[in-house]
Structures are given as C-alpha cells and as structure tokens.
UniProtKB/TrEMBL annotation:
Source species of the chain: Sandarakinorhabdus cyanobacteriorum
Class of this enzyme: transferase
Family listed: Belongs to the protein N5-glutamine methyltransferase family. PrmC subfamily.
Domain Methyltransferase small: 105-188
Keywords for the protein's UniProt record, in alphabetical order: Methyltransferase, S-adenosyl-L-methionine, Transferase
CDD domains: AdoMet_MTases (cd02440)
Annotated positions binding substrate: N179, P180, P181, Y182
Name under which the protein is recorded: Release factor glutamine methyltransferase
Amino acid sequence: MHAIAALNAAASRIGGDTARLDAEVLLAHLLGISRGALLLHPDRRIDVQAYDLLVERRAKGEPVAHITGSREFWSLDLKVTPDVLIPRPDSETLIDVALRLCQPAPTRILDLGTGSGALLLAALSEWPDASGLGIDASPAALAVASENAFRTGLADRARFMPGNWGQGLDQRFDLIISNPPYIAETETLSAEVRENEPASALFAGADGLDDYRRILPQLADLMQPGALALLEIGHSQGPALLDLAAQHGFSASLHPDLAGRDRCVALRVAPLQPPA
Ligand code: GLN
C-alpha cells in the first residue's frame, strides 16, 4: 500500500484532534525517518501489517510517545517511558522565560522533579558553560533522565540524584526549574493521561498545591544571591502562587504559555524592606 492511503486510513481509525499528526508520527517512526521526509514521498510503499499494529495501539488510547518511545522537547529527542511524564510543549514556557530572565547566564542549574530530564537538558543545551543537577523521587525516572543525558550529548554536564524535592541538598544554584505535580485530586483528567502517565507526576492533593507548599520553603536556601526559580503551574493557579510566594519572602511574576494562559511563576528572593 502507498503511504498516503495508509495514512488516510489510519487517521480515520485513530480519530480525535491529533489523528492525522499521530498517524504521520507513527508511520515515520516505523520507517525510521523524519515526518518531513515521510511527507516528501507520500507514494512510497509500506508494510501495512506492521503499521496496523501501531495504529491499533493508538486507537485504543495509548499515547504516541509510549508507542514510539520518544518525544521531542525543545528540539531534543528524548526517551519516554510510562515511568515519566510525557514532556509537553507547555513546559517549554519555562525555558523561554529562563532565557529572558536569567541574566547573566547561569552556571549551576537545579531541576526539582526532573522526570525524563526534559527541563534540565533543555536548559543545559542553551547554556554550554552550565552544569546541572536533576532530582527525582522515582529511581525509574532517574534512569530515563540519565539515558536522555547521554542521548542528547549532555551527560558530562548533567547529574541525577534521588531525593525529596530539595531536602538535604547542601548546594546553591543560579537557576532552579521545576514542573511539579499540580493537578487537584478531584479533577478529571482525560483517560489517556490518567491511565498512562504516572499519578505521582500529576496529582498534588486536594487543591493541586501540595508540592508547591513543600518546595517553596526549601527554595531560598538553594538559591545563590540573585538566583531565579521558575515553577510550572496550572493555568488557574497564578493567584494562589503569588500568595504563597509572598508568604515565603519572594517577589514573583506570572508568565503565559503560547495559549496565553498562566503557566510559569518566576521567583526571586525579595530584597529586605528597610525598617519603617
Ligand atoms: N500539564 C500536565 C497536564 O495537564 C500536568 C503536569 C503536571 O502536573 N506537572 O496533564
């Protein structure tokens, strides 16, 4: 069968908003070529049976990134398994904000809850003189992150360690980045996310703020003078994070994702107020 006919059939079998894209990514994966290369030669002949197996998994709700075993983030090709959150374009907001606000260039970067390593490796890819530490509570996630450091050629500058956020870390950093869990336990997620991605990377108590409440008290002792901390947030959590930030002595600003919704809070230790 020609690729184009197989793609059309696959897209209608998969259904949903991303059906066509999913069909293309899966076929490119099967052929071991880029999506661009696939689309340049829509009349190439393909092995329909092998393709059908992938399309069937997708049609049953398995994420594309689990079928291909990878996902692109900030132009890095990262390994993805069910042990880590699938890197999302929303999280690229943190790297955008870091590039704008983190002056001078950071040399020591900390990623709390590193998962696949996506944020830390993206940051290291932007700052060639920086080195970084990624912390995660999950040994399985740390194994994926280490593999990704090698895969992206950044292993000589990235270290990974098990830990409970920043607890017990006796170092200071110029830039701290984190995408903690922030979904309220009562929220209903799509079946695709709920059934395939680690709950420990998604849910954070009754209001989704539990992990910010753990992380914020630790941050100041991890920050060099003038350091910046960037946390990903849910789009309705901006006001709550501004409150928490003020309670813990930070000056904070909110930054939107590409859809224009609050996605990142930037924190700096607030200057001491002179006595009145
Ligand atoms: N942005 C993710 C989602 O909506 C959640 C990631 C997180 O909790 N850190 O599924």
